[in-house]
Specification:
Blueprint lengths: L1 H21 L18 H23 L6 H11 L7 H8 L3 H11 L1 H46 L11
Protein name: Embryo defective 2735
């Protein structure tokens, strides 16, 4: 008799309690919420189709003009120029991606392609800082030379402007 009771308790534990411990059920919904009906297979397919279309469109916006499908390029050309002719600035935009687009494409390629892209970015920034510092130093030196020339000119003309001190 005791073996039967023990077996039943173990069976009930495994059947009810262990399942609830391993895979807990969520709290029940509040009573004021209305339950929605389940979607049919066709409706699920339509939702999946629309979600994948939106997801693909978001990737196309992120990866830049070089990797876009042709239909997106055509849509952009017609938006930019209604006549369909490209201008030189538009051609430059499609052939030369921005730094952000370049890094995004490189990041998708892995560390091997990301490292040279980051090095290019750092080198561009370093050269920009170096050029800015050079131009600042040149301007500063020109300013110092002008001040020194004014001082020499004022010393060359004896005291017409400044009163002489008498002791």
């Amino acid at each position: 008799m005791k073996v039967k009771v023990v077996c039943r308790k173990v069976y009930d534990y495994i059947r009810y309690d262990l399942k609830e411990i391993a895979f807990p059920s969520s709290l029940p919904d509040p009573p004021h919420l209305k339950k929605r009906r389940k979607l049919t297979w066709h409706e699920r397919f339509l939702v999946l189709k629309e979600a994948s279309r939106l997801y693909a469109a978001s990737w196309v916006r992120d990866i830049g003009p070089d990797l876009r499908p042709n239909d997106y390029k055509k849509a952009e050309e017609t938006e930019d120029n209604p006549g369909g002719t490209k201008t030189s600035t538009n051609r430059q935009k499609t052939t030369e991606p921005s730094v952000f687009e370049d890094l995004a494409v490189a990041a998708r390629g892995g560390m091997e392609t990301l490292r040279p892209a980051l090095q290019r970015v750092y080198m561009m920034r370093a050269s920009a800082y170096r050029d800015a510092l050079k131009s600042f130093i040149e301007g500063y030196q020109e300013g110092v030379q002008q001040v020194m020339e004014k001082k020499e000119e004022s010393k060359a003309q004896p005291g017409s402007d400044t009163p002489k001190k008498t002791t």
